[in-house]
Amino acid sequence: MINEFKSFIARGNVVDMAVGIIIGAAFTAIVSSMVGDLINPIIALLTGGIDFSGWFYALNGESYPSLTAATEAGAPVFAIGNFVMAVINFLIIAFVVFMLVKMVNRIKEAAIKKEEAAPAAPAGPTELEILIEIRDALKKG
């Protein structure tokens, strides 16, 4: 069983997947910062100063100045703003992954075309041609 596990781990797909997960986790921090620090202010500017991260409804009917105050008071809340930010994060990540896959596919297609366009090495003489040449040389000598 240990040998099977070693062979499973040694496969390229598993290692590639692990690298992808690690890069994806690091990429999440970049996207979160981009959404929080760049996109949210633009959306707030376009919507007249609405900050989605503070958009919530307290289900107990009381009014709270912020989402933090509501959660600290133990009120059940629908944190709609957090959901909107998660959707925006997802859309950005999906778009970037789409662009990366598109770029990788373009590079692969270019490599395949390059291989197809490369002239084939000239074929050497066949075995029959060599035997005929030897026969002819023996007849002369």
UniProtKB/TrEMBL annotation:
Answer whether the UniProt record assigns the keyword Cell membrane to this protein: yes
Q: How does it sit in the membrane?
A: Multi-pass membrane protein
The record, for InterPro entries, names: Mechanosensitive_channel_CS, MS_channel, MSC/AndL, MscL_channel
Q: Give the stretches traversing the membrane.
A: 12-31, 38-58, 78-101
Report whether Cytoplasm shows up as a keyword of the record.
Answer: no
UniProt keywords (A-Z) are: Cell inner membrane, Cell membrane, Ion channel, Ion transport, Membrane, Transmembrane, Transmembrane helix, Transport
Tell where it localizes.
Answer: Cell inner membrane; Cell membrane
Instruction: Give the GO molecular function terms.
Output: mechanosensitive monoatomic ion channel activity
Q: What is its main location?
A: membrane
| GO CC list | plasma membrane
What's the subunit arrangement here? Homopentamer.
* Similarity field: Belongs to the MscL family.
Question: What is the purpose of this protein?
Answer: Channel that opens in response to stretch forces in the membrane lipid bilayer. May participate in the regulation of osmotic pressure changes within the cell.
Q: Give the protein's recorded name.
A: Large-conductance mechanosensitive channel
